[in-house]
């Protein structure tokens, strides 16, 4: 941004005056101002108002630069604190969008369904080969609903421990399919940073921290 109001009959001074504020230091500005005064037309000297205006503009520029520097410093400090806090998530269970579950000692990890209103969910449990090993239904209300599998197969025997996947359909009372989200709960296996945002790894998938529904 040029320095407003700076005029002179000397070519080099005009060139210097056209420099962007961001490139002009305090010393540069004062040297420019002195040069302008020394080279001004004696028959048309700079008036006091013009001189005062230029000094005021430079003072405002300095204040803005200092404010920006303080903001940048605060952002860096805040980011460092946030990054340190995020490390505490490693090893903790978090709930994120996903349809995986882990069965350990016959107990399945938590799954939930988020839906806007009353509905019925038909849920199929698939093993590692993609085979359906269990099917069950859950009545849903608006919001988050626990739909955790009981760990039993269709023949009422306990399933083998391992990793499973849910396949879900949700319908209202009129049989109309509804939009929904399936959530899974699992431990945070790792953490990395991308574009100054923390990314957690859950069940082999990556999620931004903002995508975590809850920590338990």
Structure annotation, total helices: 3
Show unreliable segments. 1-19
CATH architecture of the largest domain: Sandwich
Q: How many domain regions?
A: 2
Q: Given this structure, which CATH class of the largest domain is correct?
A: Mainly Beta
What spatial form do the alpha-carbon principal axes imply?
elongated
Helix/strand/pairing category:
alpha+beta
The helix/strand order is: HHHEEEEEEEEEEEE
Give the DSSP E fraction (strand runs of 2 or more residues). Answer: 25-35%
Overall number of strands: 12
In short:
This protein is α+β, with helices and mostly antiparallel strands and 216 residues long.
Plain-language structure description:
With 216 residues, the protein is of the alpha+beta class. The protein has two domains: 11-87; 93-186, Immunoglobulin-like (Sandwich). Helices cover 28% and strands 35% of the residues. The strands form two sheets. Strands 1, 4, 7, 9, 10, 11 and 12 form a seven-stranded antiparallel β-sheet that branches. Strands 3-2-8-5-6 form a five-stranded antiparallel β-sheet, with no helix packed on it.
What is the element layout, followed by pairings?
Elements: H1 11-17, H2 26-39, H3 48-87, E1 93-97, E2 100-104, E3 107-108, E4 111-115, E5 119-126, E6 132-140, E7 143-146, E8 162-171, E9 180-194, E10 197-202, E11 205-208, E12 214-215
Antiparallel strand pairs: 1-9, 1-12, 2-3, 2-8, 4-7, 4-9, 5-6, 5-8, 9-10, 10-11
């Amino acid at each position: 941004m040029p320095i407003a109001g700076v005029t002179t009959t000397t070519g080099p001074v005009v060139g210097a005056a056209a420099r962007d504020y961001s490139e002009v230091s305090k010393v540069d500005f004062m040297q420019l101002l002195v040069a302008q005064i020394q080279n001004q037309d004696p028959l048309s000297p700079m008036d006091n108002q013009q001189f005062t205006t230029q000094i005021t503009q430079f003072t405002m520029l300095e204040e803005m630069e200092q404010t920006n520097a303080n903001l940048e410093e605060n952002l860096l400090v805040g980011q460092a604190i946030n990054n340190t806090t995020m490390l505490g998530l490693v090893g903790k269970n978090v709930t994120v969008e996903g349809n995986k579950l882990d069965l350990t000692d016959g107990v399945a990890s938590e799954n939930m369904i988020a839906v806007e209103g009353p509905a019925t969910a038909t849920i199929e449990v698939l093993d590692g080969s993609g085979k359906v090993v269990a099917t069950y239904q859950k009545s849903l209300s608006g919001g988050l609903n626990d739909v955790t599998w009981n760990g039993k197969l269709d023949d009422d025997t306990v399933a083998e421990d391992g990793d499973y996947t849910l396949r879900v359909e949700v319908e209202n009372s009129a049989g109309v399919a509804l939009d929904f989200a399936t959530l899974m709960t699992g431990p945070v296996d790792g953490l990395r940073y991308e574009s100054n945002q923390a990314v957690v790894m859950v069940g082999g998938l990556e999620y931004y921290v903002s995508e975590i529904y809850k920590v338990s």
